[in-house]
Amino acid sequence: MLKPKCNCPELERVDCRLENKELWDRFHELGTEMIITKTGRRMFPTVRCSFSGVELDARYVALMDIVPVDVKRYRYAYHRSSWLVAGKADAPAPVRLYMHPDAPFTGEQLRKQVVSFEKTKLTNNEMDKSGHIVLNSMHKYQPRIHLVKLRPDYHYNGNTPVINNVEYQQFRTFVFPETQFIAVTAYQNQLITKLKIDSNPFAKGFRDSSRLTDLERYEM
Amino acid sequence: MLKPKCNCPELERVDCRLENKELWDRFHELGTEMIITKTGRRMFPTVRCSFSGVELDARYVALMDIVPVDVKRYRYAYHRSSWLVAGKADAPAPVRLYMHPDAPFTGEQLRKQVVSFEKTKLTNNEMDKSGHIVLNSMHKYQPRIHLVKLRPDYHYNGNTPVINNVEYQQFRTFVFPETQFIAVTAYQNQLITKLKIDSNPFAKGFRDSSRLTDLERYEM
DNA sequence: GGGTTTCCACCTAGGTGATAAATT
DNA sequence: AATTTATCACCTAGGTGGAAACCC
Questions:
Q1: Strand C closer than 7 Å to the CB of A41?
Q2: Which InterPro entries match (chains A, B) (predicted)?
């Protein structure tokens, strides 16, 4: 279900903005890829969003899930530098709802601060027990953000509201098409690799300026 | 006020255990010192405690504060390797209540997990705006742990219950005398320095085995 | 001189893509 | 042949005490 939904009139007034849209756009133009590993890999770029129109004293939970865009499997044609459809999708793993670790938020907090899903991790391990989001490699996905407005009597487990299915709550879903990506176990498009290296601080060690050739090393 | 207090019969049944008492005892025997800096320094050892006798479905907040043990100022006599009273205490900074960042906890969580105050930081900067605990150097202090039972209608600011004064709440205070220490800007007792180096993983670089003498370096 | 601050080398902890080996 | 896994060097981020400089 890619279409944004909302089952609560008060949430119709809420707006969600993708804070780092420019960066996502640059990846999207090339065809974003996200690495998935057995132990879980962070997404880069991170989904960072801000909310307006929320009620000051209400309490909210922000969640992310990632759903298949189509029922296709893809492969990368190196000689053509493009993605091709390789067949029908594998059986999808059950979609996991990832609750933002700082949730719940008051409306006041949501108005001030950016909600960053930097800790979200992606895995290809269907047996994963760490709560990471399980995806199939070589399949195309769409992240979604859900904002749930908590009822005052909401049942808590410590800080963590028990949200099993957003359908049962007052919620609204936001979808940013520029955050679509293909899950991979190794990067396919070299331009994506380069953009990741140039924009992710943790990959700084692979940037051109910091990688000396043997000759450069010798000349020092 | 060093004496443990409790204003709530249900909390009388609660017990609090200092999980790393053995380590604290080793420091206490030598006279624990804690570094304070302008930007804030973690405590080592950390106060790690577990609670039993809490109600499964109730919600609790754990807090720490650090209060003066006496109205004295101390100095360290190197030639005697001991602490001496150096006069009357300086004017104390207002005691700051440090709420555990993971609070609130359900009783269920408290029964299972250890509450670790590892992120608590100490500072000598009276103007500190980071929420660190402000202490006077060369003064003796006693950390205290407060367990507050939240009323169901408790007013929240996001995850963070607004606790201005434990006196207004249902609370119980726990005091472990072995966690007393003298605040310092530089270690005085060399035995304390050695025990810190040997027991704090972050100080591993100063352990004997990893510190080579010039001779050892030469012989490699 | 006693106490404090600053800067540093050396750690812990964990996020990167490259690479080669393993798998299918 | 295509894809996945394990390991690695190289980062970010930040917690240590040492040592010298700096106060007062």
A1: yes
A2: p53-like_TF_DNA-bd_sf (IPR008967), T-box_DNA-bd (IPR046360), T-box_sf (IPR036960), TF_T-box (IPR001699), TF_T-box_CS (IPR018186)
To the nearest 10°, the Cα dihedral for A80, A85, A90, A91?
140
For A121, the token pair is 């991790």
Residue B147 CA, chain-centre distance (Å), reads 15
Determine contact, residues B207/B198, Cβ cutoff 8 Å: yes
Cβ atoms < 10 Å from Cβ of A209: 6
Does residue B62 contact residue B115 with C-beta atoms inside 8 Å? yes
Residue A49 contacts residue A145 (beta carbons within 8 Å): yes
Does residue A45 belong to any structural domain of this protein? yes
DSSP assignments along A14-67, one per residue:
-EEEETTHHHHHHHHHH--EEE-BSS-EE-SS--EEEEES--TT-EEEEEEEEE
Write the pLDDT tens digit of every residue in B177-209.
999 999 999 999 999 999 999 999 999 999 986
Q: How many domains does chain A have?
A: 1
* DSSP line for B149-190: EPPTT--EETTEE--S-GGGSEEEEEE-GGG-EEEESS---H
Nearest CA of chain A to the CA of B177: how many Å? 30
| CA-closest candidate to residue B54, choices B105, B125, B101 | B105
B179 min Cα distance to partner chain A (Å): 28
Bridge partners, residue A64, by sequence: A98, A145
Q: Which chain C positions come under 7 Å from a protein C-beta?
A: 2-6, 9-20
**What would you report as the CA-atom Rg of chain B, rounded to the nearest whole angstrom?**
19
Which nucleotide in the DNA or RNA is closest to residue B46, CA to C1'?
D15
Of B104, B108, B157, nearest to A159 by CB-CB distance is: B104
How many percent of chain B have pLDDT more than 70?
85
Q: Is residue A31 part of a domain?
A: yes
Range(s) of the domain holding residue B112: 5-187
What CATH number does the domain containing A65 carry?
Answer: 2.60.40.820
pLDDT (tens digit per residue) in B107-124: 998 999 999 999 999 999
